[in-house]
Design brief:
alpha+beta, about 35% helix, about 15% strand, single chain, 2 strands, globular
C-alpha cells in the first residue's frame, strides 16, 4: 500500500490530477480449494484515490488502505461486469476505467551471500 500511495502521488504530480485511478491485477484465488488448480484466475481491481486537499503522506496512506481493502473485499466481481454496470464512454485505444496499471510480483528470493577473498 505504501508503494501504491507513492505511485499515485507521482502520477498526480505528473498529470496535475487530484483524482487518480489505477488498475491492479489480483490472483483471484480466494478459496483454498483453488490454490492448487492450474488456470487463469486473474481479475483486475480498480483503485481510485482522492488526493485533493493536499493530504500528508500518512493521511494519503489511510485513504489508499481504505480503497484497497474495499477493493479486496469485492475482488470476486469480474472486471467486465463492473464495466457493464458503470457503462463508461468507450475508446478502443485504452482501458475503460483506468489508463495505468500497478502490479507487485511476490517472488521468492534466495539469500545473497557475499564473501571477501583475502
Amino acid at each position: 500500500m505504501v508503494l501504491l500511495a507513492a505511485y499515485q502521488v507521482l502520477l498526480s504530480r505528473y498529470s496535475g490530477q487530484r483524482d487518480v485511478v489505477v488498475g491492479s491485477p489480483i490472483a483471484g484465488r480466494t478459496h483454498r480449494q483453488t490454490e492448487g488448480l492450474i488456470g487463469f484466475f486473474v481479475n483486475t481491481l480498480v483503485l481510485r484515490t482522492d488526493l485533493s486537499a493536499d493530504p500528508s503522506f500518512v493521511e494519503l496512506l489511510g485513504r489508499v488502505k481504505e480503497v484497497t481493502l474495499g477493493a479486496y473485499a469485492h475482488q470476486d466481481l469480474p472486471f467486465e461486469k463492473l464495466v457493464a454496470e458503470l457503462q463508461p464512454e468507450r475508446d478502443l485505444s485504452r482501458q475503460p476505467l483506468f489508463q495505468v496499471m500497478f502490479a507487485v510480483h511476490n517472488t521468492a528470493y534466495e539469500t545473497l551471500t557475499l564473501t571477501v577473498s583475502p
